Amino acid sequence: MIISVYLTTAILLLLLYYWIFKKILHFPAYYIACLFKFTRKFTIEESKSAIGFILVVISHIIFSFILADLFKIHFIDTGIGKFQLKELFLGVLLGIGMTGTTAIFSLFIIKLVISTFQIAEKNIFIFLSSGWFKSYESLKIIMPIWISLPLIIMQLSCEEVIFRSIFLNYFLVFGAVFSVIMSSVLFAIMQVFQMPHFRGAFFPIMGALVMGPTHSYLFLITKSIWPFIVSHVVFFMLFTF
After folding, report:
1. What is the pTM of this model?
2. Domain that includes residue 72, residue range
């Protein structure tokens, strides 16, 4: 009974923010883009996507604080205050490893899907241009690198804090194994919410299935979030830049 309450609460909050609230944020994005005259130099879609991404980053930071407060997660348990320089180097190595593992895993699944359902390989990759991939690309087009890169890092950092520091600690009352599984499942579900359709979430889900359990398990050991923020950033850069 208690587990169902915890799961229901987590899923409802996930739906409320990632599926509903983030979509609502894109409505004012157009008007803000017009206000700052981005639409004069760039397309409406590019302008709206880029501004929408910035609004999402701001809301993601706020959502992190709200979630930590609701779940009574203390600052010390988030791992933000525990920082060592060597962790950055370890994060880079971990990110490279996550990228390689996800690439191999994805290639295996792609070949399996192609052979089973007779789907053209190019059709699978077409979906990469939608959802949050499109927002990232628009941001890089409109904003200089010294603005777009910190925004991207903040967005990825929030994901690590929410799914490793907060959700992982939230489910720890039921044991480490259950906590790792549930935080990883929620992390994978979140990837679907950020894409317009399930097929477009193929690569994000593959990454989440590799990154989620690995980052979660190692976070329980290290108690520091920084290596996994670095790993996530490296993973993203290698896959998209």
Report:
1. 0.90
2. 2-240
